[in-house]
Design goal:
about 550 residues, alpha/beta, seven-stranded mixed sheet, about 25% strand
Length: about 550
């Protein structure tokens, strides 16, 4: 491989070559499938990005050091750092009698609640691997996570345990059970005999890519710590800040913001279900100063501000990424005295670059700014100009080693995005991957194609995305109908749900075709052509998209 342009972070280093490795598993324990080279790991520790192994009690002590400062606020309660430390310690003790071994994976169906955060930390601090799924997941997501990671234990809310039939997959503990145990049991911290390896696999997040199967992204405590440090740097974050988190804990934005807040002993406000009116009230009630996530969330909040004729907010900064950012949004933020920060990253390489957005700067929806500390970016010198990223925040590889085959170039992560780097500044030109970003959540088109095979009796189908003013992008399913008469949107959606597709991955528009789909010479359906020729086709729409008179 040859490089076009290379840009380094402020410390000016180049990534060292990587030694290839294969996955090794003992029982259900997970290990990195693409660990860093010894030279890179040594440098990251020397330069302060990574920590050496620490006594197992160290994370509990760090929590406890927050004292009576408020750690977490959810929709029902507020916990201090001292309370959180006690509950996490007791949850860890409860997990120790389940037969789990160090390194064993634990599946967590994770809502944004204090109890779920405590369960996540209990798993992490005990030296186990937290395998995260969002509370909105479907049975197919659970089935895939169990097949991919083989967790001997699942933690979830009681309603989700029932809805997803989690006990069919093995042992289940509910958050209520864990919290009740924690609040009534006095437990001491672990002794210093055991060490917590900050380089080992610690968290698995599932992300959609160009294949139909969600990829398990594996991070260590050190890689997450580096990503959180980058977010803190981009936002000038301090312990007096109060982040407002509505992005799922099961996504990289949620995990990174939690890590950032806990490390600073700051207060984190958790919003389990985002609803503009109620969420704006919570931001005002708790004086939240920071939000990070999809632009659509901020747009909805600003619209609610306009409804209330509210000109000022306690927010001082917003971190935006994951999709195109409308200039009207950044202008509206600046007008309210809020500093918008554009960030570039992914589940694999979180918070890689950032760019403060100024009201007087030329508009550019693709300017991603400069690399954050420790991050290196480069462009492959080939026809695609694919962006490559490396650094101490880089993930450890995918859960399935087969997914690593085309994902790396030495120690560089292949992002699948086309880019230019001019004088060290990153500009994204387009996406190579076939995904739709809806409210910042990425949906694999190949995964939707696969799920839609249950509709084969109606005709063949193909998924694609279109711009949407409310969600950023809208997922559309084109269906070439054998017999379209009397077909209902709810019928198609019901069949997709029955097949196990998560609600947040459902298409919101069904375009009915009566002619063959355009295809390549090899017979592959051309998504872009399908999207381009859809204007004159009839559509079935989700209620959100229907005209008021048709409801």
């Amino acid at each position: 491989m040859t490089f076009g342009t290379i840009a380094n972070s402020a410390d000016g280093h180049d990534p060292a070559p990587s030694s290839r490795s294969t996955a090794r598993q003992s029982g259900t324990s997970l290990e990195p499938t693409r660990p860093r080279s010894a030279a890179s790991a040594e440098r990251y520790r020397r330069e302060g990005y990574w920590l050496q192994p620490q006594p197992l009690r160290a994370p509990y002590q760090e929590l406890r050091a927050g004292g009576d400062r408020t750690a977490l606020i959810d929709n029902s309660s507020a916990w201090s750092y001292r309370q959180l430390a006690e509950i996490v310690t007791s949850i860890s003790a409860r997990l120790s009698i389940t037969g789990l071994r160090p390194g064993d994976p634990v599946l967590i169906i994770a809502p944004l609640t204090n109890a779920a955060v405590a369960a996540y930390l209990g798993v992490l601090y005990s030296g186990h691997v937290a395998v995260l799924l969002d509370r909105r997941c479907g049975v197919s997501d659970v089935r895939h996570a169990n097949t991919a990671a083989r967790p001997p234990l699942t933690l979830a809310g009681a309603a989700d345990a029932e809805r997803l039939a989690l006990r069919d997959h093995g042992t289940v503990l509910t958050f209520d059970d864990l919290s009740a145990t924690a609040l009534t049991t006095a437990t001491s911290e672990p002794d210093d005999a055991a060490l917590l390896d900050f380089d080992a696999a610690a968290v698995v997040l599932f992300t959609s890519g160009t294949t139909g199967t969600p990829k398990g992204v594996v991070h260590s405590r050190n890689t997450l710590r580096s990503g959180a440090a980058n977010m803190a740097k981009a936002l000038d974050f301090t312990s007096s800040d109060i982040p407002f988190l509505s992005s799922p804990l099961a996504g990289i934005t949620g995990v990174i913001q939690l890590e950032m807040a806990l490390h600073a002993h700051a207060t984190l406000v958790l919003e389990n279900v985002f609803e503009p009116a109620a969420s704006l009230t919570h931001i005002l009630d708790h004086d939240a100063t920071i939000i990070g996530g999809a632009p659509v969330i901020i747009e909805q909040l600003f619209k609610e501000c306009d409804n209330r004729q509210l000109d000022t907010l306690p927010l001082r900064s917003i971190a935006l990424g994951g999709t195109a950012i409308p200039r009207r949004l950044t202008d509206a933020a600046v007008a309210r005295g809020i500093a918008p920060i554009r960030v570039y990253g992914s589940s694999e390489v979180p918070f890689s670059t950032c760019s403060p957005v100024r009201r007087d700067a030329p508009a550019s929806g693709s300017d991603e700014g400069f690399p954050l500390p420790g991050v290196d970016i480069a462009v492959r010198d080939d026809k695609d100009y694919e962006l490559l990223v490396s650094g101490p925040h880089r993930f450890l590889g995918y859960l399935d080693p087969a997914h690593n085959t085309d994902a790396f170039d030495d120690e560089w992560v292949r992002t699948g995005d086309q880019a230019d780097i001019i004088e060290g500044r990153l500009t994204i030109k387009g996406r190579l991957k076939e995904i739709v970003a809806r409210k910042g959540m990425k949906i694999s088109l190949a995964e939707i194609d696969e799920a839609a095979s249950v509709l084969n009796d109606l005709g063949e189908s193909v998924a694609y995305g279109v711009p949407d003013p409310e969600t950023g992008e809208r997922l559309v399913l084109a269906l070439r109908c054998v017999s379209p008469s009397g077909l209902e949107f709810s019928e198609i959606i019901g069949r997709l749900l029955d097949a196990g597709l998560a609600k947040w991955k459902l298409p919101e528009q069904i375009v009915l075709w009566h002619v063959p789909f355009p295809r390549t010479e090899s017979g592959k359906i051309q998504r872009r052509e399908v999207a381009a020729r859809a204007a004159d086709k009839a559509s079935l729409l989700a209620p959100r998209l229907e005209a008021p008179s048709s409801r």
